[in-house]
Design brief:
heterodimer, A: mainly alpha, ABC transporter involved in vitamin B12 uptake, BtuC, two-stranded antiparallel sheet, 77% helix, B: alpha/beta, Rossmann fold, six-stranded mixed beta sheet, four-stranded antiparallel beta sheet, 9 helices, 10 strands, binds adenosine-5'-diphosphate, binds magnesium ion
Chain lengths: 325, 251
């Protein structure tokens, strides 16, 4: 799927677009702080969900947008973290915070296993391999009833008292998402992040320059899984329930679609994409229960008409305007 | 012995039934300028791929600075001091010249594993990048996107990137192919002005260009060694004239 990568806007780093970036960041942050004061409780929790899925989408974007490797296995990595966190706090009766850490650790280990199997491949093979690996995890969650509760899933132990209020929980998630996003931003703009772009554009060139391409991809996959694990752990507290639908393919597809809708290779576009897709899902579900079909159609529509995504499109327009002036 | 930088010992590369490189042996001395010539399909690029590990030799040995690297990974050979350009331009087209140079420079430094650090040049890196860009005559284009460079400038950037890490062996695969005459002059001037301690092996199809640049020429045909000699002898070698006859107007 290097076609996704090649679309990513590259003029992100000029001083001018940096100014624009800072401005939109400031506006975005302001909106995120004010929103819960004006929204009713139910809608606050939708915004919370958007933040969590944006993190999942960003973790996918690290691989898809920067390393040119489109994963359909990240839903499973995310969901494993949710399973482990809930299993720890209910069945094992452990502390929820420890459960969250264990969930993130489990997701990171699962990502390492996926990575060992998948990094030798690229393009459609990578897509299909990660898809198959995700399906295995889904199958295990479905069948291993004694541990996972099978189809019925598992109910969590309930949020800690101070997080029960929608707005409180929202701010707690926001407090975690902001530094995590900042670290992702640093990651994709670090020398390591630039090496990933190089791998996306030409592996043979990178090898000849001295890069161990497999090692870089392995590390990128594990880091990406770590971030997906954080999102999955937050989701455990958010949803307080987990079932095979949390690890199923449609979650991987949603996450990828959010990254694409926002703009693959833009990182922060994932917030825009997550907001767009989550809002669409909430509107669509008023009229029909066929969300998976609508999701599929949306995917096709975006790939045909706006493959560079919303933020990607805005960047292109700005760059063009900049060139003309 | 120690003045032999690169030694190929009965190197062969097979693709199924095809022997693309067949039992080639040669020695390249430190500081030498060597050309490898031969008609299309002679196995020149495949030989480069065996030397650099992109497509390892299936028989024989590749010895670099006395070390057997026949099975080594390409990135390991780069760390030993080999560097190459590709026949088909192989750059990062959506990035700027400077960003291409940053990636090139960090290929051999631990900086490439800096996960959260700044990607800006350090003072030392900037100096190296500017040095390499100056040799390749590209210093005025640092902020340009690679896909907006002319084809000739892209070939110059290929050379700047391979020079950036201070290699001891530089392998250039048809650096002037497909260029306009004025661009060829720039490229041959760049090759001529390379630091004399760098050993250069150059594949080139154009005899006139190559014979003015090198000390010694090896000619391949059908994957096999055909002849070698000083440029003056190559011009008059009848075997080589036969191979090139009908393909080139001169010789
Ligand atoms: N990856 C490959 N798989 C199969 N055959 C190849 C491959 N690479 C090169 N060849 C074949 O090997 C021969 C030599 O090719 P090459 O080394 O590119 O020649 P040259 O660079 O001298 O023009 C040709 O017949 C070519 O078709
Ligand atoms: Mg060739």
């Amino acid at each position: 799927m290097s076609m996704l990568g090649s679309l990513s806007a590259s003029n992100l780093d000029s001083p001018r677009s940096r100014k624009g970036l800072l401005l939109s960041l400031a506006l975005g942050a302001l909106a995120l702080v004010i929103l819960p004061m004006i929204l009713p409780g139910y809608q606050i929790s939708i915004v919370t969900q958007i933040l969590i899925f944006a993190l999942l989408a960003m973790s996918i974007d690290v691989l898809a947008g920067y390393a040119g490797r489109t994963s359909l296995g990240h839903g499973a990595i995310f969901g494993l973290s949710t399973y482990v966190a809930i299993y720890w706090s209910t069945t094992m009766g452990g502390h929820i915070w420890v459960g969250l850490l264990l969930g993130i650790v489990a997701a990171t280990i699962l990502a390492a296993i996926f990575a060992i199997l998948a990094i030798r491949t690229s393009g459609v093979y990578f897509l299909l391999l990660t898809l198959a690996l995700g399906m295995i995890v889904w199958g295990v969650c479905q069948r291993w009833t004694s541990v996972t509760g099978g189809e019925n899933g598992m109910r969590g132990a309930g949020r800690p008292a101070f997080l029960i209020d929608h707005a409180h929980f929202y701010f707690a998630v926001l407090l975690i998402i902001i530094p995590v996003t900042w670290s992702l931003w640093r990651l994709v703009h670090s020398p390591f992040g630039w090496a990933l772009r190089g791998i996306r554009d030409s592996e043979s060139r990178m090898r000849s320059l001295g890069y161990n391409v497999q090692l870089h991809l392995f590390i990128a996959f594990v880091l990406s899984g770590f971030y997906a694990g954080i999102a999955g752990a937050l989701y455990a507290v958010f949803n307080d329930f987990v079932s095979p639908s949390t690890v199923q393919l449609s979650l991987s597809v949603s996450g990828l679609l959010m990254a694409i809708t926002g703009g693959i290779g833009t990182l922060l576009g994932s917030f825009v994409g997550a907001a767009a897709i989550t809002s669409l899902e909430n509107i669509v579900s008023i009229f029909t229960e066929r969300w998976p079909s609508v999701l599929g159609l949306t995917f096709i529509f975006i790939m045909i008409f706006a493959p560079e995504g919303i933020v990607g499109r805005v960047q292109l327009l700005l760059a063009r305007k900049h060139q003309q002036s | 012995m120690s003045d032999v930088l690169l030694k190929l010992d009965h190197v062969g590369v097979r693709f199924g039934g095809l022997k693309a490189v067949d039992d080639v042996s040669l020695n390249v001395k430190r500081g030498e300028r060597r050309a490898i010539i031969g008609p299309n399909g002679a196995g020149k690029t495949t030989l480069f791929n065996a030397i650099t590990g992109i497509n390892p030799a299936t028989s024989g040995q590749v010895i670099f600075e006395g070390r057997d690297v026949t099975r080594a990974q390409p990135h390991a050979r780069a760390a030993f001091g080999m560097s190459r350009t590709f026949q088909i331009t192989n750059l990062f087209p959506t990035l700027t010249v400077e960003q291409n140079m940053q990636i090139a420079l960090r290929g051999l430094s631990p900086q490439k594993f800096s996960f959260f650090g700044s990607s800006d040049f350090t003072a030392d890196e900037r100096q190296k990048a500017e040095g390499a860009l100056a040799i390749s005559r590209l210093n005025s284009r640092a902020q340009t996107l690679v896909r907006e460079l002319s084809y000739g400038e892209q070939r110059q950037l290929e050379m700047a990137m391979t020079l950036a890490t201070g290699p001891r062996l530089l392998l250039l695969d048809e650096p002037a192919a497909g260029l306009a005459p004025s661009e060829r002059i720039i490229v041959s001037d760049v090759i001529r002005s390379l630091p004399s301690d760098i050993t250069v092996v150059l594949i080139e199809h154009d005899m006139d260009l190559v014979l003015s640049l090198v000390d010694w020429v090896t000619c391949l045909n059908n994957g096999r060694f055909l002849a070698e000699g000083a440029p003056a002898d190559i011009r008059n070698n009848s075997d080589i004239q036969d191979v090139y006859l009908g393909r080139r107007h001169h010789a």
